[in-house]
Amino acid sequence: MKVGIDMGVATDGKPVLMDLEELLATRLLVQGNSGSGKSHLLRRLLEQSARHVQQCVVDPEGDFVTLADKYGHVVVDVAEHSESSLQRVAARVRQHRVSTVLNLEGVDVEAQMRLAAAYLGGLFDAERDYWYPMLVVVDEAQLFAPAAAGEVSDEARKASLGAMTNLMCRGRKRGLAGIIATQRLAKLAKNVAAEASNFLMGRTFLDIDMARAADLLGMERRQAEMFRDLARGHFVALGPAVSRRPLPVTIGTVETAGRGGSPKLLPLPDAAPEDARDLILTPSEEELAAPPPPAKRSPPPPPQDMTHLLRLAGQRQAEAAAAQAALPEEPEGDPAELEARLDEVLRQVLSDPGAAFRTDAVLYQDFLVRCRIHRLRGEALDMPAFRRRLSVLRAGVDEAREESPEWQQAVEAAKSLPEDMQGVFLLLARAVLAKAPCPSDAEVARACGSRSPGRARRLLSYMEQRGVIVLRAQLGGLRSIALPHLGKETAAGDPNAAAPEEPGDGDLFAVA
Fold this sequence. Notes:
Keywords: ATP-binding, Nucleotide-binding. By secondary structure, the chain is α/β, with parallel strands linked by helices. It is built from 19 helices and 14 strands. Helix 18 (about 440-445) crosses helix 19 (about 455-465).
């Protein structure tokens, strides 16, 4: 069914129709300075298409809530919802095909970005059965997809920008058609603006914005000056949904009105100067009501003597040193014995259920606590040394093979690799030296602290690109992995095999 949205009239008086089906497939970008008529244009578009397609409006100023009175849009007030509840609301919106207005009025910009990201994410992540066509209109899109970092946190900016990118780049297959409006193209992220194929350009004054608008419309730079002369409500349209050539259009009238609107001049009130003085300097009856007593504040502390503070700090350090000296000294012992005790503590850390899937930083803190329990200096191992020793233990090499020259060569080769590769390299080296089958993706994932076989495959591919390993496909879907550093290769193994069950003693990486 072909539906034409009546947007207004062209210069020759003919109506300008926008193909709704083409708009759903190609998206729309609207640009214009404040007061150029962007909100009026969006309202015209929403009113003309309300009977044909589901709509969602991300409204940062609360201007579009009036659509609910005439067209039945449900106003979702963010003051009543959290981010998680907004995601669930968005899922139900797609399921029941209800048009909504997400009212973000009354919250700060960072909260608007977070809440809009949650709502758009819920629309985007809906189940495939509910991928019905839907217009998603985002007013003031530069707030939600800024071209540069501002005063908001990076977390909020990344979440909002990711949601807008998903809407404009990947939303078409999910039935979502993004319609974004912005005051300035220079403030809008380029990867979001670049996905629109239809454009409506209104009045703008800055050279950089006029130049970008002319480029998007395929006009010459000398024609860019025309954007300064456009009247309110006049736009230049281009795109497969409206016109194959730049087409001036005057946006038609609307049936609803926003709650804001343009300021209108009103006559000043007639008041004598003395009356005006009384009005602003005389408190009203409400103001004369007794306010609650102010909270009592404690007097500020007297200024502290820095000399006295430094003397106290010196005394405390001396007392701490004396208390440390009074403790029984930790026996130095044989260095080899100390190394063995550290390895034993490391094995205790790894024997904890779930240790294989914890980050190295968490395991290091657990290691330091256990060292204090055993009166060992765990700080002797810094984080890089701890990771190298952890990789060796995770490889699960027995004591006899650990002393072999081949294993020492593998350990030395691992030291030259990035930390995220060392554990997997030593796991493969153990299989090579034991002439064992090639570890599966699940085993490789466990060695790098993950449950995801996909992550293991990506890491192996990256290691092959770096020349660390060589992957070889064998008959029957098996594979083997060669280590050029050792000049040897594992036996063929099934990459899709499940990881071995954890041993009864809880050692996730013990040799079976």
